[in-house]
Amino acid sequence: MKILSDKNNLQILYEDNHLIVVNKRVGDIVQGDKTGDKPLSEVVKEYIKNKYNKPGEVFLGVVHRLDRPTTGIVVFARTSKALTRMNELFSNRETQKTYWAVVKNKPQHPEDKLVHYLKRNEKNNTSKAHSREVPDSKLASLDYKIIKELNNYFALEINLHTGRHHQIRAQLSAIGSPIKGDLKYGFDRSNPDGGIHLHARKLTFVHPVSKENISIEAPVPHDSIWNAI
Questions:
Q1: Under a CB-based contact definition with an 8 Å cutoff, are residues 168 and 97 in contact?
Q2: Which one of 89, 168, 213, 215 has the lowest number of neighbouring Cβ atoms within 10 Å?
Q3: Measured at the alpha carbon of residue 174, what is the angle toward residues 169 and 177, in degrees to the nearest 5?
Q4: pLDDT tens column, 149-170
Q5: Of 166, 187, 223, whose CA–CA distance to 105 is shortest?
Q6: 158, 101 Cβ separation under 8 angstroms
Q7: How far apart are CA 215 and CA 186, in angstroms?
Q8: Alpha-carbon distance 35 to 47, whole Å?
Q9: How would you class 210 by CB atoms within 10 Å of its CB: exposed for 0-12, middle for 13-18, buried for 19 or more?
């Protein structure tokens, strides 16, 4: 995937009058939170305002989010019409989301479907994966396959069937394969940049206005492990 722009810590993967798709980096927050840090949404607004010399407030809708320590594809809507339709696509699971993850412990099977019931803990902002339904839990499922064996790690490709809070992190931890750098879910040490090796690699969907099939891939971050994959 060609990066259309790489200015102001912003990697733009796709842009038209209705959508703008960005390759999120480690540490970026998609939308403002209690930290007060400048969110990616504001950076994108400034980019649009400057590029198109737009007066006044720029409309930008947040379609979905990625956890702060993860990287990869984030979609924003530039019109309210596109936002409404993209929200429907995501809520109706009419998008195909593919992630890459790096784990230290090899999963028991080279490929498998994982089904758990996730229960969110608001106090410590985690989700716990249970093998059977428990009160206030939600069904979570994904497919994974090992795509590369490295010296000390294993790269997995993951296709999500549901979009639960910390789903991939919690489910891989539940099978004994926490993601590299993910202290919150059982990895033994953090990554130097504070991120985790989880990357939203590919997104396929029908464009909300033109109705054409759109498939976007996000380049992985530059480090020795991602580069080896």
A1: no
A2: 213
A3: 70
A4: 998 999 999 999 998 999 999 9
A5: 187
A6: yes
A7: 33
A8: 22
A9: exposed
Q: Map tokens 């979609």 to a residue.
A: 75
> Residues 185-189: what's their mean pLDDT?
96
**E-strand spans in the chain?**
5-7, 10-15, 19-24, 61-62, 71-77, 96-103, 111-121, 126-130, 138-149, 154-160, 198-206, 213-217
91 dihedral zone (left: phi>0; alpha: psi -120 to 50; beta): alpha
**3-state secondary structure at position 28:** coil
The b-or-e profile of 165-194 (16+ CB within 10 A means b, else e) is bbbbbbbbbbbebbbbbbebbbbeeebeee
Section 17-34 average pLDDT: 90
What does the pLDDT look like over 67-109, one tens digit per residue? Answer: 999 999 999 999 999 999 999 999 998 999 999 999 999 999 9
User: Do 164 and 172 form a contact (C-beta atoms < 8 A)?
Assistant: no
Q: Which amino acid is at 112?
A: D
